[in-house]
Amino acid sequence: MNQTEALAELQKGKVRPVYLLYGGEPFLEEALFREIKKATVEPATVDFNFHVFGPAPDQIQQALAVAQTQPFFAERRLVVVKDCPIFAASRKKEEAEEGEEEAKGNAGEEPLIAYLKSPVPSTCLVFLCEDSVDSRKKVTKAVIATGGAVECKPYKPEEATHWAEARATSIYGKKLPDAAARLLIEKIGADLRLIDNELQKLALYAGDAKQITAIDVDSLVGGMAETEIFRLTEAVMLKDRARAIELLGRILRQVDHPLQVLAALTNRFRQILTVKTLVARGVSLREGPGVAKMHPFAYEKMVGHVRAYPRAEIIRALQRLLEADVAMKSGGSATLTLETLVVELMQ
User: Fold this and answer.
1) Homologous superfamily (CATH) for 3-151
2) Which residues are registered as beta bridge partners of 127?
3) Which has fewest Cβ within 10 Å: 121, 247, 306, 340?
């Protein structure tokens, strides 16, 4: 089930006893979770019937203990389990030293599987996972069997374009023509939170006008140009440290927050991995841009770089980008984290 289908169910009054929200697009997960909370928790009883359990050795056991109690003067109880490692893919051999901690995180697997066979109807148990999950695991299959597994995966540029058009109308009351929407995505990528932030600014900028034009987008959203991020990524791949630092400094002076740069870099490295995979499969230069949803010129130029860029290095870069995202959102210096990241990616 995807996020749109899950939202449609909630709007019809159907609330499932178990949800697993995953996929890597936090904006979609957060939007869906807000609707789940709205449908399950009465504001007057939120202190008694809304529970959140963060990472802990007995995280699952604590959550299940509360999930199996009746709600307090309400129809439902909402129990949320955040960042639970139980659904994650098994760690690699080089991370074996952390196996003991992983075993602790998976200690509640069997009790959870038993609960999923007959979940408490008055409880809504929600698992929030920022990334993908291992669909081969027994516990993941058990959640999927309940029908409550919802994949909130990042949008491709074409999907993000349609989403931006719809959101501009439904949330900000402005028409966003296709040309303006495409230009917006070209400038800042497919990160939905960034898109929403820019739409809010554009709506204010447009004032009483009924639509946001491509001229508006070009005038207001100038800091995260696709070409600048492309050049920065190219410099990183070529290990041109001086140019990369220069480009990063230029981009940071033009954006509201370093997270915008991080999101754009992450999108770019995802594209790099896609192109690397297509090249390895022998996809032609004529077919590749369509499959990767990229401009032919940009695709062809990237092909020239990825041939000599090891796949393992791309994976390492994506892992490091994720770590930087967590560090920034945990209160670390965003600018310093990003600068350190760019240097490390060239080592």
Assistant:
1) P-loop containing nucleotide triphosphate hydrolases (3.40.50.300)
2) 20, 81
3) 121
What SS3 class is residue 284?
coil
Rounded CA separation 228/225 (Å)? 5
CA dist 177 and 164 (Å) reads 10
Rounded distance between C-alpha atoms, residue 226 and residue 268, angstroms: 10
Instruction: Name the residue among 297, 298, 303, 231 with its Cα closest to residue 261.
Output: 231
* Distance from C-alpha of 77 to C-alpha of 146, rounded to nearest angstrom: 18
Question: Is the entire prediction scored with pTM above 0.70?
Answer: no
Kindly report which listed range (40-49, 219-228, 261-270) carries the lowest average pLDDT score.
Answer: 219-228
Class of domain 157-220: mainly alpha
What's the CATH fold of domain 226-345?
Zinc Finger, Delta Prime; domain 3 (1.20.272)
| pLDDT tens digits for range 142-155 | 999 999 999 998 88
Out of 88-97, 100-109, 233-242, pick the least confident: 88-97
Q: What is the pLDDT of residues 276-308, one digit of tens each?
A: 999 989 888 888 888 887 767 678 878 888 888
